[in-house]
Amino acid sequence: ICLKSSDSVWADLPVTLIRGREKGPTLTVAAGIREGGFYAAASLLQLRRELKTEKLKGNLIIIPDADVLHYSGRSSQSSSLRISHLSDAFPGSARGTAAELIADFISTSVFDATDVFLELNGCDSGSDPIAFMCYYDNPEFMQQTMLAYRLSEASGLGTILSYTYPLSSGEPSKCAVWYSS
After folding, report:
1. For residue 123, is it left (φ>0), alpha (ψ between -120 and 50) or beta?
2. Is 137 exposed, middle or buried (0-12, 13-18, 19+ CB in 10 A)?
């Protein structure tokens, strides 16, 4: 998808939409929102190649690489890039930098079309001594929090962490975290 603001700032965002044979929920899986997403992006590209679409119920949106560092050199305002990775740009702006355009698109168009949003992160892969899964524990959205927990359990990783969700009701997301009411 080529995103362009009215100020002629633009950014390309690789997105794949896979529609399942049957209706069902929409799962979005993204990588590259935080630094160190190379291995996560590679995993999503492999998932896209190996997925058996005839067995899919619902839709799958894959954003294999939202790494803002790839876009900074192609933005007409690259010298004004004020962030180190895309997560810092949320909730984004339709009139901002390339990173803010991408964050705005994810915050509005992708979140609106998504039932479950998962972010894969390599965490600079070599820096973490163990593989782990992490989800936000938001008491305002217990159903979604329990779903995030069950998805974390299903990952098969031995270590699962939960973070307390720090935003109050109605406050815009400051990173790629999404809950549907």
Report:
1. left
2. middle
Q: Is 37 exposed, middle or buried (0-12, 13-18, 19+ CB in 10 A)?
A: buried
Those residues with Cβ within 8 angstroms of residue 89's Cβ, 6 or more apart along the chain or in another chain: 68, 83, 96, 97, 99, 100, 102, 103
CB 130 within 8 A of CB 101: no
H-type helices in the chain, by residue range? Answer: 38-50, 68-71, 98-105, 111-113, 142-154
Query: From the first residue on, what is the mean pLDDT of each consecutive set of 10 residues in the chain (181 residues)?
Result: 82 90 89 70 86 90 73 41 64 85 89 82 57 76 82 79 75 52 37
Please report, as a single letter, which amino acid is at residue 93.
S
